[in-house]
Amino acid sequence: MGAAVAGVLGFLFLAAAGSSAGDEAREAAAVRELLARLLGPGRAAAFSVSVERALAAESGLDTYRLSGGGAGARVRVVGSTGVAAAAGLHRYLRDFCGCHVAWSGSQLRLPEPLPAVPEELTEATPNRYRYYQNVCTHSYSFVWWDWARWEKELDWMALNGINLALAWSGQEAIWQRVYLALGLTQSEIDEYFTGPAFLAWGRMGNLHTWGGPLPRSWHLKQLYLQHRILDQMRSFGMTPVLPAFAGHVPKAITRVFPQVNVTQLGSWGHFNCSYSCSFLLAPEDPLFPIIGSLFLRELTKEFGTDHIYGADTFNEMQPPSSEPSYLASATASVYQAMVTVDPDAVWLLQGWLFQHQPQFWGPAQVSAVLGAVPRGRLLVLDLFAESQPVYIRTASFQGQPFIWCMLHNFGGNHGLFGALEAVNRGPAAARLFPNSTMVGTGMAPEGIGQNEVVYALMAELGWRKDPVADLEAWVTGFAARRYGVSHGNTEAAWRLLLRSVYNCSGEACSGHNRSPLVRRPSLKITTTVWYNRSDVFEAWRLLLTTTPSLATSPTFRYDLLDVTRQAAQELVSLYYGEARTAYLNKELVPLLRAAGILVYELLPSLDKVLASDSRFLLGSWLEQARAAAVSEAEAHFYEQNSRYQLTLWGPEGNILDYANKQLAGLVADYYTPRWRLFMEMLVESLVRGVPFQQHQFDQNAFQLEQTFVLSTQKYPSQPYGDTVDLAKKLFLRYYPRLVAGSL
């Protein structure tokens, strides 16, 4: 690593971590409070937690030390930061007590007495940073959260050793102050902001206006949340990444400043210019540094700063010129506006743009951006490194430090998916790359609350110098901790999932669910998958055999439902294939049979299984949105934002089903009516002897989709039915047919 990079990062570490006894005491207190929330005050008393910066004096890297435990002795956890102490605590609970902490719930049965640490265990992280989040996560997952949910997430982050994360809530309230100061009217500002469910893309300049305006109460609530989030992050010793000005401005700027030099960018995501084609301020325009510094000054006055800022000027947006001089100037002006306000500023850049449009970002263009910021002051997220790493083709980002990130999930989709082998080997390979400037690992999913095994592995890799030697052994250990007991059949099921759905490899791997279940039907949907479906069905069978002994485990019930959901998704593909083949062969009876089973048996059965768990309810999803409101009108507005995001995404299905979910209510009232209409039109086409009209179907399907989005139907937010019983019924109906080879 170059001296400049090492120097800047060393400075950053010291600045972020602090060194006073007060900081150490505050961070230790925060971890003790986390422990009490996790285990309860009584059980938490069996642990001694302290923070001592001196523990990392030699390496400067987060370090923890475990000791004690056993009969009558407290377990002693010491960390160089609060995050390091929390990670050490998690390591003890995981490896010594067989416990498990996850989004879907935790398994925290502690042995009595607490196991002793045989000999003092000291562990240092191999890199400076463990990063978390994607700009999109704030819209796909966090958008409607209250403080109680945020607190749980921050605890999860600390336990998983995260020490660098976005803190982007409340920024629109700050922008509103800046725009008013510049002379824009309130109505111009209201017209500019997107609705809550689409703010991520407003922040990156992809969209404006769509789904808006933002109510005044929204700004107040987000300011409150941001203060609490920042306070908690800092109390753990995490470094929050604040937003900065990337160059995008409201069109109304041209009214206030008629001479301003702006360029209108192209459209994004099939939206027309009513909602996209954002205005980009020319880097040389005198307004650029004024707006950039006004925003950052107002932001840091409100929230303080930890000196790292995120900004994305050309995320999925083609720059107006490919000239290196232009790209360098555009990049330099963003950075210059930062350092004008904060001389210690470091810019965190999502490296997605380089791999998303590789035909535009050739060597000269990439060099122009990377070279426009002093070395060590640009921290690049290699966002999709498990599949399409950029560091390899840019000579380790030409000396700029980077974080190896696993993106994994798109749109917050459900669907079992992972590239665990690539994830396992990727970080170590990046460290060994010639002249590597890798300074951390990261998790950057667009949406969370799915495929928890993938995130458990990635979080663990943030503290490992080498890959896990035996992933099969690792995954069986994961299953035992998750359910609180070792069971041969659950472990066999997880080994099957590891070699199938979690074994995607190559550039084609994408955590975006394109199953026929969640797509607008056509005769051209691809149903091929990278794994053997029989492995999923066998894993399903094995999990069901363990229900007599594991049915009381909440994490087991969640996984049983998730694998049942996946099996139903596979069955939808198979019955769709049967129906399509029958139609193309002009065989009416087989078409009617496959269509009838799919529409009137399989999809309703799936909806019933999903309805048995609160985490798979459309009602819970929409209730979260409504709960964020202060009036009925606002609740309706937020609910519609949420419905749009799940389905049409834009007014005309612009990014249709990108954020698809498998939720009870959504399957029954959105996916099923589409499939019913499709099958009816196929049958009618066959009976009348006329070609199937896809265009006509699309128009009719859009009417159904829009009806769902605009509906005010209430959905249950409490689960109904027994997951195990419903999963068994589904299994007994379809598994024998699969074995017999006759759907």
TrEMBL record:
PANTHER family to which the protein is assigned, alphabetical: ALPHA-N-ACETYLGLUCOSAMINIDASE
Boundaries of every Alpha-N-acetylglucosaminidase tim-barrel domain copy: 130-465
Naturally occurring in which organism (per UniProt): Panthera pardus
Glycoprotein keyword on record: yes
GO biological process: carbohydrate derivative metabolic process; system development
The protein's name: Alpha-N-acetylglucosaminidase
Keywords: Glycoprotein, Glycosidase, Hydrolase, Signal
Residue stretches making up the Alpha-N-acetylglucosaminidase C-terminal domain: 474-731
Signal peptide: 1-21
Enzyme Commission no: 3.2.1.50
Reaction catalysis annotation: Hydrolysis of terminal non-reducing N-acetyl-D-glucosamine residues in N-acetyl-alpha-D-glucosaminides
Keyword Transmembrane helix: no
Domain Alpha-N-acetylglucosaminidase N-terminal stretches: 29-116
Family indicated by similarity: Belongs to the glycosyl hydrolase 89 family.
GO MF annotation terms: alpha-N-acetylglucosaminidase activity
Pfam families xref list: NAGLU, NAGLU_C, NAGLU_N
